[in-house]
Every structure is written in structure tokens, then in C-alpha cells.
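Team,

Forwarding the record for the chain on the shared tracking sheet. I've put the sequence and predicted structure together so nobody has to dig through attachments.
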Amino acid sequence: MKTVLHSYSKGVDHINEWLGKMAGWLTTFLMILIVYDVINRYLFNYSNPATFELEWHLFAIIFLMGAGYTLKHDRHVRVDVFYANFSEKQKAWVNLTGTVLFLIPFCLIVIKGGIPYVEVSYNMNEKSTDPGGLPFRYAIKSVIIIGFFFLLLQGTSSMAKSILTLLGEKKT
């Protein structure tokens, strides 16, 4: 069982590490796009709704696809008043309990609720309401489901690591 948990956790961690690095590169592209947009707007008095929407879409992708990476590296928001002084096993219990009671149900609710949301958007071939805006709005809405799926996977990886810690395994 320990080998399966190790392998699973390592595989999920690898996927979210890659996704996090891709999200990091998207931040570079987003920064370049924003500079381009600002130069066009203030120097050439030209604004393009598609460029502005693409900035928001990239931000959403970075945030959603980077969530699993953030959880993997334990960089999410946490109140560490007590947690910082806990032993590794106490931290494992807190992480396991929080994952089972809060993270997994929340991810499942968002995924389940997001599916019809994306289906409606896809079926109506939803696009931007702004003239010159981006088409295929369902594509960006799909990222909600995808991002929460990878966050859910990382949550299960975190759960596996907590179980391994509780079973006396050293952190890897």
C-alpha cells in the first residue's frame, strides 16, 4: 500500500509541477501582453477588446492551473498560529482532515456545478458580448473544471502524503 501511495503521489506531484511551471511561463506572456496593451492604449490611442479579454483569460488560466502547484508546495493561505508548532504527525492529521472535509468536497462541488455551466456555453457557442472580443468563451469556462480537477488530484496526493506520514514514513 505504501508503494502505491508513494507512486500515486509522485505522479500527481509531477503533473502539477509541470502545470505550475507552464502557468509561470504564462505570467511572462501575460506581462508582455499587458505592456503591449498599455503601449497601444496610451501611445497610439488604440484599444482592442480581444487583447483586454485575453489578459483576463490568461490570468484565470494562471490562477486555476497554478492552484495544484501552490498546494503541492504548501504555499496556499493558512493561519499558522498553531500549525507551525505542530509535530509532523499533527500536521498530517490537520492536512488529512482539511483535505477530506473541505478541499475534496469543494473541488467536487465546483466541478459538478461547472459541467452544466460549460455545457450551456458550448451548446450556444458563447462568445464575448463585446464587439471585437474573443470567441469560444466556453474554452475559458472549461478551465474552471480542469483547474479544479488538478487541484482535486493534488489534494488526493496531499492526502496520500499525510497517510504515509501517519504510517511512519519520512517526507519525500
